[in-house]
Amino acid sequence: MRVAIDIQNLLLPMTGVGHYVNNLLRALSLLPIRETIQAFYFRCGKGGYRLGLTRGKVVERAVKFPPGRVVQLCWKRFSFPRVDTFVRGADVFHFPNFVSRPVKSGRVIITVPDLSFVRFPEFTEPRNLSFLSRHVPRSIERADKIIAISDFTRKEIAEIFPSAKGKLAVTPLGVGEMFFPRKDAEGLKMVREKYNLPEEYILFVGTLEPRKNLLTLLEAYEIFRRRSGGHRTIGLVVAGMKGWLYEETMTRIRDMPPEEAPVLTGYVQDEDLPYLYSGARMAVVPSFYEGFGLPCLEAMACGTPLVCSNTSSLPEVVGDAAVRVSPKDAEEMAEAMVKVAADRQFAEDLARRGRRRAGEFTWRRCAEETYRVYESAARGPGRGSG
User: Fold this and answer.
1) What is the per-residue pLDDT across 372-381, written as a single tens digit (0 to 9) for each?
2) Do 153 and 212 reside in the same domain of the chain?
3) Which domain holds residue 289?
4) pTM across the whole model
5) How far is CA 261 from CA 25, 253, 276, 279, 340, in A?
6) For 39-68, how does the pLDDT look when each residue is reduced to its tens digit (9 = 90+)?
7) In this structure, are 373 and 313 located in the same domain?
8) CB 295 within 8 A of CB 268
9) Looking at the structure, do residues 120 and 197 belong to the same domain, yes or no?
């Protein structure tokens, strides 16, 4: 069985899907498999993305012609050219970013990370909404196998797209080995100074966009400061890049009193994230909707007490290792934050449960289950992707 994986999205700034693909490839490279896996992309300009893998069976393949921008445009408008014209010899093609590409020969697998564009179209950038609405149903219909990253998403796909029946598999994501409690004072101090962090803080990690629900967290934080008594000095840190429709959030932050306004770190380097989590009194993930919710897993792995939404896939991921609240209720969110800040024993218990829960999710497990999907697709009858 010969597998080819589309890694085109890794040429762009790293997003949730990018982290999924990157970690999946690294874990696949460590599996004791016989066949080589091609990680292919159509090159844009003179450069290219290099994973730097030096072991295992994953090899990168840069297609020099046609250029990436040209082929992307042709796929959108004409469903042409076929991928296997340039990436030859594969029995299975895996497209991990919602949409399949035209393939003449070979089984087709897609990963659908979430259906937020269906459930909450108002949270999706209009051009992306139009693209996903046109192409995801067609990709689901034509795929031989469909990977969901949570059982919640699997059920959503089955409910909304009847053509997915019999083709769905779940491969939960993992947490990187770099995420564990960091105790060294020098490292914590360095990261605190680098990002100008307060001595004590509540942490939000995510893109600044409506789906992440930062506005409700800001309201909850103001309530928290009024009710937390001696914990009023605990700051709020917002770590992440600006997404789309972030202007309302920024306006809200500018209107806050200086002593209450959060620290905005912007993009945080991967090596700094474990220290950012480890130094926090708690992490809060207030999203309206998540297909999985990696920040929850990362916070738990670092031993950081967690408050998160009680919606979508998050209860499935966190189990009993977090305080779950309504993403629409700032009062409830604030009460949970006060509880974690005021009750050290409760916070320590959350941290212990979180670390234990996070240990159940590994990228090796994700890679093993994904490879089983490849094997199942290779054995099964092909539907073709035309």
Assistant:
1) 999 999 987 6
2) no
3) 185-358
4) 0.92
5) 39, 6, 18, 19, 21
6) 998 877 655 556 565 467 898 888 877 766
7) no
8) no
9) no
